Amino acid sequence: MKVPISSTKLRAHFSGWSDYCESGVLEVFVAKILKLMLILCLLCSITAVMAQRFPLWERLLRHYGGNTDDTPVPSMKMGDHMQMSLKGKPQPGDEQRAQRIVAAAGRVVARYSDVTTALRDGYKPFHPTGKLGEEVHYTNYRCNRLEQRAVNYDHPGSILYQRTPEGMKAVGVMYTAPRDSTPEHLNTVAPLSIATWHRHVDFCGGPRSLPLEEQFGPKSQFGPQGSIHTEAACKEANGLWIPVVFGWMTHVYPNAKSPDGVWAGMDMQMDANASDEEMKK
Question: In this structure, are 178 and 254 located in the same domain?
Fold first, then answer.
């Protein structure tokens, strides 16, 4: 059954809308909506442009990296892109803790002496060059995520392999901590009086349109070995500034020939020392 609507009610209904429009409230509301839509469109456009200009991995590093390389950890810059912790004051029990960590690292190296075992257990090579002599991080990303909350010395986030003429040789492990860690937290994982912690910092990512040789390597402006190491220079070169790449890391080489080599913070052969012709897998 339809209920008739009187002409008086209809006039009142449309009169209300007329008053609303005449008051300008509707125009203001529509203007705000249009402004919001314009802002969203601009943000989407900027994101799309960024996605086109820089590789995905650089954008991920920028998203998950730190906004500054400032840290409460006593440290110093080593070169243009490395931040190293300074040795802390020895505390009672440091030597014993360090020995237990080295023993655990030794068990890991022995268990994963065959690189196929590491691959089977979810460890994947991070940015290998395929050159003889390089040190390659085989990372298990699940273990790495768990390590940010609580370290398990028998299940490190990364195993370090060196490429030799006989194949990949397990030489060490890498333990990690969040990029915003305090000195106390790093000391809990591995004593600062013995271990050397490091972070990769001041990274300027290059546009994806550049050839790879211009994005990486010691002769490039961009990348982890690039000549650019300040935000101003990165902006001038139209790069993507990444103040901190990943978190804190410490390397342990349980079978090093000298005691100093066990916790050798800078004994990281990240560059190949042989030509392609000498490469053997």
Answer: yes
Name beta bridge partners: 85. Answer: 75
Residues 25 and 152 in one domain: no
Is 124 a member of any domain? yes
Based on the fold, state whether residues 245 and 269 are members of the same structural domain.
Answer: yes
Q: Are residues 40 and 64 in the same domain?
A: no
Question: Which pLDDT does position 20 carry in this prediction?
Answer: 35
**Rounded to whole angstroms, how far apart are CA atoms 39 and 33?**
10
Cα dist. 126→134, 139, 141, 164, 193 in Å?
12, 7, 11, 17, 29
Q: Which two tokens stand for residue 245?
A: 């790449």
How crowded is residue 8: how many other Cβ atoms within 10 Å of its Cβ?
A: 8
- For residue 138, what pLDDT band results from cuts at 50, 70 and 90? very high
Task: Give how many domains the chain has, as a whole number.
Answer: 2
Q: What is the Cα–Cα distance from 265 to 169, expressed in whole angstroms?
A: 19
Query: Which tokens belong to 158?
Result: 């990364």
* DSSP assigned state of 66: B
Residue 3 lies inside a defined structural domain of this protein: no
Residue 109 near residue 128, CB atoms below 8 Å: no
Model confidence pLDDT, tens digit, residues 6-58: 544 444 444 443 443 344 555 656 566 766 766 665 555 444 444 447 766 67
| Assigned token pair, 264 | 């050798």
Contacts of 101 (CB under 8 A, 6+ apart): 153, 175, 190, 252
Q: Residue length, the chain?
A: 281
Total H helices, total E strands in the chain: 10, 8
